[in-house]
Amino acid sequence: MKLADRVAQTRVPLVVQNCSTARVCVLNNVADCAEEVARCPLRFVLSDDLTRLCTALAYSTGSSTLECADLLRVPATLLWLEWSTTPWESELARYGFASDQTIVGRGGRRGALLRASPDGRRGTVRAFWSKDVEEEAFASSIEGYFDFDVSAGEEPESADGEQAPPFHVVDHAHQGRDVLSRCFRFRFERSWREYYDRATMSTAERDALSRHALGTSAIIMPVILAFLLLLGTRAGLPRRTETFERLNRAREKAGKSPLLEHVEVSCPLMARSHGAEVRHGMVTRRGPRLHHVRGHLVRRGNELFWRVPHLRGSARTGTVRARTVTWTVDPVSAH
User: H or E segment at 143?
Assistant: First the structure.
């Protein structure tokens, strides 16, 4: 079952009780977002190869400094997208991110709900996940808000007018020039913020909590940006709509909730590298050691050049037919 269906079918609220005061409160979580996910006009499900490409675009050398905010827009005022955890985490591992070994290979999913302005340039985003194909869905206590039109030195304003102390993710190696640092801010969702404000925590404990909560959301934002960038190219992305008409008729007769219609999007056609798969112990070679070269993204005007990840070294494993992919992006029209 897709993560969108798990969210849309959740009805049980998240109720917590303070062990010291016995006070009971309800925190905003998956059940509170079920209706919005169910009525999303656009729900995208990324294929595994597109998940890997978006993750590589997001975290390869050179991608974080790409100035592409003027090319980005959310194509609907309410949008859902999700992907499988396995290809996402395997690609992250190639760029130095540690994975949670307790959930590797369990088939979990990641997703996000975006609420955007009519021009798609401002909005909020919230992260969702499941750790297992059979496990319940979870929503982050942190939500992000963005403004792609903000200038350097300005602060993005919350699209819903909610005033809360924001968190700022900065890559000091690139002096905050990347889109995430400039255009995004993060905050605790209101019910979670009020809940933590009532808790008795030291400064160190609160900082650790904030960093952990922020980590569940901020890490997926560059992947979302890469997807929006590819979605806005002239060639677009190969897509196929899943309606589940026949299956849903059977589910309705069985008293089950219908599965949500969604659009499956896959990787754009790219020249494949020959010899990219190498089995350990089967290649003996002299000279340069066969090694993987990271991808690199460069922008020139409205064209994006993606130097695809490739192998370099012994020719015995094959040759790379093409290493550069060019995408053309139409400028976002002014409203």
Answer: strand 138-147
